[in-house]
Here is the input.
Amino acid sequence: MELTAETGFKKPFKIIEPSKGLFQLELGGVWQSRELLYFLIWRDVLTRYKQTAIGAAWVVLQPLITMILFTLVFSRLAKIPSDGIPYPVFAFTALLPWSYFAQALARTSNSVVGSSNLVTKIYFPRLLIPLAASLAPVVDLIFSFLILLVLMVWFKIVPTWGLLALPLFLGLTIMTALAVGLWSSALNVKYRDVGSIIPFLTQIWMYASPIAYPVSLVPEKWRLLYSLNPMVGVIEGFRWALLGNKSPDFMVMAVSATVVTFLLAGGVIYFKKMEQTFADVI
Amino acid sequence: MSDIAIRAENLSKKYTIPATQRHDTLCDQLSYSLKSVFRRNERAECGDKTFWALKDVSFEIKEGEIVGIIGHNGAGKSTLLKILSQITLPTQGRSEIYGRVGSLLEVGTGFHPELTGRENIFLNGAIIGMTKAEIKLHFDAIVDFSEVEPFIDMPVKRYSSGMYVKLAFAVSAHLKPEILMIDEVLSVGDLQFQRKCMAYIEELRKSNSTILFVSHNMFAVKAMCNRVIFLSGGKICFDGSAEDAIKLYEGPNKTSALPWAQNAIGADPSQWDVYIENVETFDETGMQRDLFNYGERIRIRLGYTVRKIVSNPNFLVSFIRSDDVACCNYNTAMDGFSVPSLETDGMIELLTPPLNLVSESYKIFVLVRDAKFENLYCAQVGKTFHVRHDVLNTHFGVFHEQGEWFLPNEVVDNKAFNFTGGLLP
Here is the structure.
């Protein structure tokens, strides 16, 4: 194989053929294009709050206002327990991964359709599109995290060693958003109905996740079924890692992680299968 | 082995056109699928039409070759390029690519209007396949080339369209792939811009890059390509020297349907009420020619076939310059010529006034409407003719006609004469 003088790239040898095997995922191509992934994320982050009056403050305001509302409605009015943790912190800890998830899912679902100008004009691993869309809102999450730290200081909550496990749960959150996003973004190319379903689905999903209420409120016999919702494990994990929840339900977390793994693997395979027709259908 | 850049073997691409409608909502698809479960044969009966945009296309391109791909609309040129640049997969066949591919199906792919010129250089550069290091290395050169330096930190949504294209092309022109595929991108922009494009191609050629080049612009094809593949109906109908291919392409006097008309009138032009079979051009003396001097009159003969009687027909002939500027139009209704009802096949001829069009090539568009311009019966593009003039080109406008000039004091004198002449002693 020759080396080209200018780039030092190994001369690639590509074969273009009709249909590939179901499991030929070409993840190596994604890795090779990581610079482009970086630029796509960078674009999403940069353009998000251009031409807004208060710019990045929205990132922090959204979960903050939701937290205040939740505290008023669910804690003050409905008297929902919060496992002995001050309710605002209890809610905000869950809103942290949830706001990210809702945001990332919304963007990822529309990512491929929204990039039709790219998809029909140039080749690059299509997986980069949903990948970038689901990674860009992580920046928002980090900002909200700073607010949480302020809240924790305010309510005098000392983090435990569980904090070290936080990246793990952050990873699980991203995987969840990406897994669902891969399915919905690929489906959205052919069926634009997905665009209408996702906001609705997100709303239902929020009530099916322990954001306003603790997992302990769910009856024991339904717990297993309940934890098939991957966001249950994620939120439970966040609360345990950040607040040192006394009685973490590790079974719930394990079930959720397993579900996500399968959902993600299926999502990647489905996406790769559908991407062959993206340029023709979009 | 090593000197082959692209090998294509029986590349084919099939598209399906649903016979009635597309099932683009989940609900439609579900009800459609349910129905077809119960009526197994429905799908075959109402027949989703399939058509081969590309059929058994095979060729080998050697390193350093510059190959033009020409063909009429719908011949499969873009499909071929899309397959070779991996945007879409072939239905059958295979292709091997030896080298780093750059494809420019448009300039400025992925430009984001909210981002500044500087930011878009990086984004677009990465999208078309440059590494960050390469973009950084060429950044100053790109800005220089684009001529938009003062505005580089302004969002591109505030750019004029000319600035936008220049910046976009500047990025593209710094992509130095081993194999480049270009689709018509060179036919945009002003003359100076096009010169830059040519210089870019020339530079690539010197560095022994392989170039695949789709174009309608026969001048460009002739100037750059040493080999031309002529596609027609998804198949290669000629593969060889540029001159021979262009002769074939500009074809004796055949016409083809305008794509937009297929939506307006019907997808199958052979079912249209009237069809212009051929367009011929002659000079005033009746010599068949397609190269005219500025100021000559052109005789255009249209041969048509009639499938359904058309009463009160109105023939329209327009000249469309190679950059798609509509230059002029003649039609029987406005020129005061009444055409009898079309009942059988026949011919009609137009003699233009002395044409003062500038030096360029012009396509002849032919439409048949009714005298009130309400119905459209056919719309086709016929042959191309060229006008030559040593000086007058598109910089001088569409037409060049003589004006009358005066010096101001002469005007005053004339006025003085007109107003007072005869009265003063």
In short: Chain B has two domains: 4-12+51-250, 256-396.
